[in-house]
Amino acid sequence: MTEQLNREYDIGDEIGRGRFGVVRRCVSRATGDAFAVKSVDRSLLGDDLDRALAELEPKLARLAGGEGDGNPGVLQVRAVYEDDAWTHTVMDLCTGPDLLDWIRLRRGAPVPEPDAARVVAQLAEALAGCHRRGVVHRDVKPDNVLLDVDPAGEAPPRVRLADFGSAAWLGEGARGRAEGLVGTPHYVAPEVVAGGEYGEKVDVWSAGVVMYALLSGGALPFGGETAADVFAAVLRGSLRFPPALFAGVSPAAKDLMRRMMCRDVSRRFSAEQVLRHPWIQSGGGGRELVRPT
């Protein structure tokens, strides 16, 4: 590991893995504060795209997070150390599970709408901040949404969007375009699968899939036996709400999911529009659908 990193931090046990590297707990030797450090051995990356993404990841993560905690819904980067082979990114340490484990702990029970609305609102707020700064995440999924838990139990968990290993830079205000089949099959937007260029709304589609998983107890809207089958289902974009899973879900919640997972990108909501939807504004408590203005 980089000598300066070892001088400044005590490196502990592995706590996770990202797309390119291993994440370990670490403690600042100066302050005693605990952080996480993601270490990527760039020499092991044989693909040109992977090398480019690994090089960009800490830069885009830092940009997406904003200076001085400007985007608190993004896991904050505190320091980056590099040498000829390795990149080590020191980040805030979350005290809770990721969203995937949180859903699994419910053993198939759906997340109550007020709790789901809180998660979706915080995720949309984080994405809106990323997009304003020109960053598209491209791999929004429950595994990459961490929960920061209040040790005293007095405040609800706070969402932190993590792992920018698939992110792209679209220019200020996300006016540019990205390309390439990047992301996770069940969560990727249809325009990514179709090939060609696409914009920041691919993240909103993925966040819509996350919302679907929260309210269904872990089910996903687009499935298949193989990745090719899943991609085909995503391209069809036939969004259904099986009564066995969604009988108790409000019309307002279903409306928002339809707007987030709309195949027509021009009609799909932006992250900012998600935040203005009545279901979000009511904190998931509005049972009737009121059209947003």
TrEMBL record:
Would the keyword ATP-binding turn up in this protein's UniProt record? yes
Q: What is this protein called?
A: Calcium-dependent protein kinase 2
Source species: Zea mays
Q: What is the lineage of its organism?
A: Eukaryota, Viridiplantae, Streptophyta, Embryophyta, Tracheophyta
Keyword Transferase present in the record's keywords: the answer is yes
The protein's superkingdom reads Eukaryota
Can you give the residue ranges of the Protein kinase domain? 9-280
Cite the SUPFAM superfamilies for this sequence.
Answer: Protein kinase-like (PK-like) (SSF56112)
Gene Ontology terms, MF aspect: ATP binding; protein serine/threonine kinase activity
